[in-house]
## 1
Amino acid sequence: MALGAVIQVAEPVMVQASADGEYIRYIAVMVRVPRDGAYIDVERVVVTVSTAESMQTYTGTTRWRPIGGGGGTGMPVFWQMQIPLFQADDPTLPGDLLIGQNQRFFVEMKPLDAVPCTVERTAPAGMSPGSWHEV
């Protein structure tokens, strides 16, 4: 990715509620490949999820998956990341990041060679247990 390129978040950002519906279990974020054809090296993107009380950082390619072909180039058009917030879903996490109903959270994506992108969202009130919600 060229210096100065920008990661663009493709809406919507989705969250999955925990089994009891009190917290967010996963956050799913999709980013669009820059229109200039620059490649996103997802292995070099550092993702941080934070609240006013805590934060968790994610690196590496294992959580990213490519979506769509780039018009015959073989390059993906989008990359999607499903971010686990509970250690039970990803034992490599140092602990659970609890984001409750109506709580504000941030997802920051920092590529080493591009402009960072931050999205701010609020967890839905009245989440149905285990269901996905657009935020």
## 2
Amino acid sequence: MTEEEMAARRVEASSIVNTYMGWSAGASFIPLPWVDLAAVTLIQIKMVGDLASLYQVPFSRNVVKTIVAGLLGSLVPAGLARGASSLLKSVPGIGTILGVLTAPVFTTASTYAIGKVFIQHFEAGGTVLNFDPDAMREHFKEEFEEGVSKASGKSGSKAAA
């Protein structure tokens, strides 16, 4: 593959991630507790599937579901906030408003981070089957923080993807 083709593929991969960030933000507005998280998880799995297709690597939904859960589990405080924002929606009135206002940042940031770590892994020749969540945890956390900056409209420390 030529350098130009690789660069074009990276641009397409970033476009896929950006598209799914929007979808996950939208899904976080679902006012039903836990339904929003289920929808976001499905969106994130679909995004990894599209990235796998772009990089022409085999895709296994069950394996990716486990990887995504493992990566999100590494963000215990943020993961709790993500679940808490969903749970808040069960409180009539103010709970729904607070949940809807906080959930998009966490879901968008986690979608961004998942996409970025899979892009890096696929760029290095990896597949879904040899993805090591433990080895990617720190990188995932860094990408999550970058995603929070992007989702909240702050300029991040990295160049725009």
## 3
Amino acid sequence: MVTTGGAAHSPGLAELLAEHRPQGPTETADHERVRHLTGAADAWDRGTPLHFTASALIVHPPTRRVLLRWHVRQQAWLQVGGHGDPGETLPLDIALREGLEETGLTDLTPWPDAALVHLAVVPVPASPVEPAHEHADLRFLLATATPERARPENPAAPLEWLTIAEARQRTTEENLRETLDRVGRLLDAPA
């Protein structure tokens, strides 16, 4: 969130991507690939072959743990997040809503700030109702002071609090391992 004249607002796609500095060749290529989508009316439309999603890795800084969620469709332990609802266009707001819906945590707040932590274009396999497509996933960090209150949105989507090392072992997704490495560096940074 950016504060202007005492009021806070979440940056839109163009502002968020303009401020983000990609790290490494994969993220740089993904960043270049999706920049043209920022002005498109269907940038969040899940019916397009490549569209934006917003997600968050939820952290509990005092214990240095992160929260992963089992995603049935992907058959993987991942961060929380997903598609924007109709009319939603602010990435951080989408990540906050998804975090609340998928964990029940009502105290989620951007940590250590509201900056985009990682942009990753990820493949999504076909399902009975959707063809294979790609998500341009905008990843944030959200902190909670009440990790014990995390509750899965349904029994098929369990949640687990893990150390960074445990989370790296649990996930099969290399792009999430990169996000976890970035979180680890932030957790190790002097206050």
## 4
Amino acid sequence: MTHTLTFPGESAPALPAVSITVPDDWAPLSVSGAVLAAGKAVEQGAFRPNIVVAVSRFAAGYTLETAISAVVERVESIAGVEELGRDTLEVLGTEGFRIEFSYPDARVGALMQAVRIAVVENGPAVDLVQITGTTTGQQATELWGEIRDIQSSATRA
């Protein structure tokens, strides 16, 4: 005897729908592993500031604390990283976390990243939603507020 499993289905629910609001000079991007991404229009050859939304599925019981530990560990493992700040805040209408940091990059001098995460209960699974904004250090002087605004705009659609 056999049976069929389907995605999405009762035992494998669809990933959470996420929306972000971006300024007019931002456009959708296709990024491997992302469910949603956007980049700012820039001169050809310049680094393109971007926002990437990724969703990872875990078994029930995966917690925000576990996700925070994993993200912090990943950030701290980056050579030359400088943490700029972290705290808990609302992400996607639920308790979340943010960490911001910079690190040296051979191509552009320095990259700055802002990561926000939330853990979303989803039937028999738990989905980790990560919203990452990236700019060069120089671009961040003008765009960091824009990156944060886009991240703050994220909602479950």
